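Worked example

This section walks through a single chain of length 280. The input is the sequence exactly as stored; nothing has been trimmed or padded.
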Amino acid sequence: MSAIDSLPPLRDVIETHELRARKSLGQNFLLDLNLTARIARQAGDLTGCDVLEIGPGPGGLTRGLLSEGARRVLAIEKDARCMPALAEIAEAYPGRLQVIEGDALEIDPLAYLTPPIRVAANLPYNVGTELLVRWLTPKDWPPYWQSLTLMFQREVAQRIVAAPGSKAYGRLALLAQWRADAQIVLNLPPEAFTPPPKVSSAVVHLTALAEPRYPADAAVLNRVVAAAFNQRRKMLRSALKGVAPDIEDRLHAAGIKPTERAEQISLEAFCALARAVAAP
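Given that input, the structure is written out below as tokens.
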């Protein structure tokens, strides 16, 4: 019996079902159920929420989410080997866990979820950033999710919460902070995982804002930010010359010196620049 429910410890589950983590799937399993429950608690009060989990593996975080009171968990898992272990969890929590075998990049979870919805996942390293960008750039805002509680490589987590002037500051920070409050809530060393990755990890909690922090057209802002950071060592007047022929005038209109570089520009200033670029 484990510390959080009546199911076996995860090491026993992995041994019983022969679930060796696969590098090709970006798998690193968390085996400490007290730790997975702690991560689940970072997602907030789950009692009235459906929770979307990507890449549950043997189900450590899944059990944490259910034991912390999630109304329902939808788990999307690509690795067919994990299905029997997840089925055992579904049996132990009747009616509260639905598992879909498939690729999270190809499945629309909204068909299976009822609001309010939170997302919590120890994301596979190879798709984590792509999934985050999708969650932050839906067609309509606010999104279907209230919050995202996600495990990343620490380097990626630092990029999400980075401030202007730091080396980690870039498109990911601007994308996340424009529409959400983002903070690192937990750091984990490599030895917390099986097998231990070569890097440290961190859990980031993002809470969706009702509307973006500053007004800007999403497509224009993305184009401006992408161009600025694709040549981050260049002055903005050079990096952005493909965005508008009169880019220096538009930089001035936004209150930005044309000689500054992308990493020096705040989110508010980038939004002002996006409005200036969109203006006739």
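What to look for: The two ends are 67 Å apart (CA to CA).
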